[in-house]
Amino acid sequence: MSRRGEFGLIADLFAPLASSEPGALALTDDAAVLDLPAGYQLVTTVDAIVAGVHFLPDDPPETIARKLMRVNLSDLAAMGAKPRAAFLTCAFPKGLDDQWIEAFASGLAADVAAFAMPIAGGDTVSTPGPATFTLTALGLVPAGTAVLRSGARGGDLLAVTGTIGDGALGLLAARQADGSGGAHQAFLADRYRVPQPRLDVAAGLAGHMHACMDISDGLVQDLGHVCEVSGVGATVDMARVPLSAAAQAWLAEGRGSWEQIMTGGDDYELLMAFPASAAHIIAAWNASGGTPVTVIGTFTEGTGLHLTDPAGQAWTPVRTGFTHF
Ligand SMILES: [Mg+2]
């Protein structure tokens, strides 16, 4: 796999990513031994990304590593958890050169530092198949405070973080290697390759949420998941769905569609239910300069999603979102 071999890779490239976590034992032992502060619960999630499925095989290795870290951090944010430590399994295709692996490790190192998320263990193997990376992320919440998908109630505000649709348009942008996407192509491609886990919103507002999940498979489909497990319906006013300047431009130019924005994957924004009484808390949060939180609709008693397009007409997607199977 590499002229360094498995142990050389671990010592040279991955052990430095463990240096801030004493319990990682410098990746020289059989397992990590982590302390859990009294009164906290461990929130655990795992996500795998596969070349050709979750990232483009010729994406920069730095951004592949960062996406791996960030999709998992997004799941921690969705539960209201703070990052604690991560475990990484790399299946590198045979014949991948050391330069690629070094670039992957340097992208990971940047996010280990940015999010205080040490790599406390893992495994490194070679594979005859496509590059596959799996990260298990551990986070902490004060006991009993994890935010679940199932807590939305009729009358709750339906809100999202950041901007919606950049992930789906970004995949199109990332595929247009010829630069034909215009001035916004780089922004959108970056939004696809390097998601922004909304840990600030989790830290600042989780205590006010009734429910939360992160949008990985499209707003419509993921909203459907929250509604189903909460036993409620929802209305969405698409005129209020926050769009980046780039997404607005692509929509106006016919490069992108509402279908892609509402049902495309890879946004990694948070979808949240707040009691109506929290409206002033959301306003204060937005005034404070945190990641913007935008109310786009309401959770309703009963069942069913009712979407209204910007022209005020009832709107139904052709497809509801990304499914693997
Ligand atoms: Mg998720």
How would you characterize this protein structure?
The protein is an alpha+beta fold and 325 residues long. It has 2 domains: 5-142, 2-Layer Sandwich (60s Ribosomal Protein L30, Chain: A); 149-315, Phosphoribosyl-aminoimidazole Synthetase, Chain A, domain 2. Helices cover 33% and strands 24% of the residues. The chain contains 10 helices and 11 strands. It has helices spanning 5-14, 61-78, 98-114, 166-175, 185-193, 199-205, 219-230, 245-252, 258-263, 279-287; strands at 40-50, 82-93, 119-127, 132-142, 157-161, 211-215, 233-237, 269-274, 293-300, 305-308, 314-315. The strands form 2 sheets. A 7-stranded mixed β-sheet has the order 6-8-5-9-7-10-11, with helices on both faces. It starts with a helix and ends in a 10-residue tail after the last strand. The model has no long low-confidence stretch (mean pLDDT 93). The structure holds magnesium ion. Magnesium ion binds at residues 75, 78, 213-214, 216.
Spell out the CATH superfamily of the largest domain. PurM-like C-terminal domain
Hetero ligands: magnesium ion
Q: Low-confidence stretches at least 5 residues in length (pLDDT < 50)?
A: none
- CATH 2nd-level architecture of the largest domain: Alpha-Beta Complex
Main sheet: strand order: 6-8-5-9-7-10-11
- Which percent band covers the strand fraction? 15-25%
Question: How helix-rich are the residues, as a percent range?
Answer: 25-40%
Major beta-sheet overview: 7 strands, mixed
End-to-end CA span: 31 Å
Number of domains: 2
The count of β-strands is 11
Write down the CATH class of the largest domain.
Answer: Alpha Beta
Broad shape? globular
Task: Specify the structural class.
Answer: alpha+beta
Please give the radius of gyration in angstroms: 20 Å
State the order of secondary-structure elements, H for helix, E for strand: HEHEHEEEHHHEHEHHEHEEE
| CATH fold annotation of the largest domain | Phosphoribosyl-aminoimidazole Synthetase, Chain A, domain 2
Binding site for Mg(2+) 3: 30, 75, 214
GO molecular function: ATP binding; magnesium ion binding; thiamine-phosphate kinase activity
Domain PurM-like C-terminal: 155-307
EC number: 2.7.4.16
